[in-house]
Amino acid sequence: MNGYPSKRTIALCLSLVCCAVVALTLDDYGITWDEGSYVIAGRTYLQWLDSPSIETIDRFWSLNHEHPPLVKVMVAATGRLFGSIPFLPGSEIPAFRSAILIFVFVLTYALFSFASELYGRGIGILVALSFFFLPRVFFHSHLAALDYPLTALWFLVVYLYWKGMERGWGWIVSASVLLGLALLIKLTALFIYIPLVLCWIMATHERFKQQREVGKGSWLKRLVPQLWRLVPLFFIPPLVFVGLWPWLWENTLERLVQYVAFHADHFTIPVFYLGREYVVAPWHYPLVFLSATVPLIVLAPLLVGIYKSASFGNRKANTFILFNAFFPVLLLSLPGVPKYDGVRLFLPSFPFLCMVSGLGLKYLLQRFRGGGLLKSAAGLYLFLFVLSVYVSVIRTHPYQSSYFNEVMGGTVGASMKGFEHEYWGSSYLGTLGWLNRNSSKSFWLAMADIDPKARFPFDLYREAGLLDGKVRFTSRDKADYVILLIRQGFFDREMWNWFLNETPVFSVRLSDTLLVGIYRNRK
């Protein structure tokens, strides 16, 4: 058509390019705390799958059962598959992380498809790329963790169900199966039901209006056929969830209660935020982090999109997308809900936020159409977009988890305003060379006394051959050196003293911001 490639071709090429970028940089990122526990648990699950038996379920599936197994099994499977191929460069780390490429592909494909349906192909491409190159999202797209996969399935379920309201049962059943898979990633997938029910209400209300205009039966007769569009959502996902998680096959109800209760009474995680230490961060934490970590090239049209959503384009679609964009943020803002780790816990907001930004960008570009300046305005935006990607993603590589935007004055400005420098241990990777050169010394890993998961990355580095086997970790009072991740929310008085008053013998930095410091231990 007019010599342009089809939307499917564009979606496929865009998704493959994004996957290629992630694949080529998988081993640039340090292993995060949670990745280590997921890899270890996934390997245990695979052992059971090699020789499944009802009698051995508890022995193999009890490890890390506070989270469902889907991503952990996938991570372990790709680690086994690709880690044993001799001609592939690098260590086993990119092998087990390669599972994430599936989610990068489907999310990029779906995001372009949804955005291009509403705003056209050009804006659709920019929406997909805007999301892909959000610095903190780009960081998470490389990790064998749960947040990016949940984001991918969250968006895909909502998109397919939206289409199912117009196109019928096949889309609704597909959305329901994928919702079951989303539940197999993380408990918070339960909240996907809220935008889905909203979608059903909006579609049913529209049909009621149409049927009332033609005098088609009573409201009850009109409602019953619409209820069947909800049935798959409440029937299929629970079957998928229980059927694919062997740990739930015995004492199912008791274990479901145990699973939900663990998260309902989640242990508190302290946070250093705006220069203060909090046991639970205040309600505005997610909103501030959203505003502080989205580059201006996306944030500015986002604000325009919010403002024009009621008067420009498809009002029904705009309302639905706007709700999805802010629902996870507002959910996390509720009193008593744990808030930590920057944007990680509301990552599902960002595909929809980029769609709202795409709406704002389309409105802004159309303002130039009448004066013949459209090409110049579009060219200027593309130039600024590429420049923004260079500054926010390439220059901060591989420490995008510590990125803050222009409004904050970058990472240095955010540090001065009292934000945590790091949160998940990825930057430990930068210490390995120094540790190997000083392998005769002993080290205390400061955060390991708070959460043993902090040790897992170093175990995997040693296993992958990146850390000398002679490097020895010991207790605080016996160590020659202290390795301190600059996550101030976890600091005790002595850690604060090292950070504020001591000079590290080695440091990992982003610009002038300290991410990890190694200090001589003055025992």
Question: Could you describe the 3D structure shown?
Answer:
This protein has 523 residues and is mainly alpha-helical. The protein has four domains: 60 residues, no CATH class; 167 residues, no CATH class; 116 residues, no CATH class; 100 residues, no CATH class. The protein has a five-stranded mixed sheet. α7 packs across α18. The N and C termini lie far apart (74 Å). The model has no long low-confidence stretch (mean pLDDT 92).
What's this, in brief?
The protein has 523 residues and is mainly alpha-helical. The protein has helices spanning 7-24, 33-50, 57-61, 70-83, 92-97, 100-119, 121-132, 135-140, 147-167, 169-183, 193-213, 219-227, 231-243, 252-264, 285-293, 296-308, 315-332, 349-366, 374-394, 410-416, 432-437, 456-463, 493-501, and strands spanning 271-273, 276-278, 442-445, 472-473, 481-485, 506-510, 513-520.
- Percent range for helical residues? 55-70%
What is the mean pLDDT? 92
Largest β-sheet summary: 5 strands, mixed
Count of DSSP helices? 23
- Structural class of the helix and strand makeup? mainly alpha
The N- to C-terminal Cα distance equals 74 Å
Coarse shape: globular
Order of helices and strands, N to C? HHHHHHHHHHHHHHEEHHHHHHHEHEEHEE
Strand order of the largest sheet: 4-3-5-7-6
Q: Over all CA atoms, what is the radius of gyration?
A: 24 Å
Query: What is the total domain count?
Result: 4
As a percent range, the share of strand residues is: 5-15%
Number of strands: 7
Poorly predicted ranges (pLDDT <50, ≥5 residues)?
Answer: none
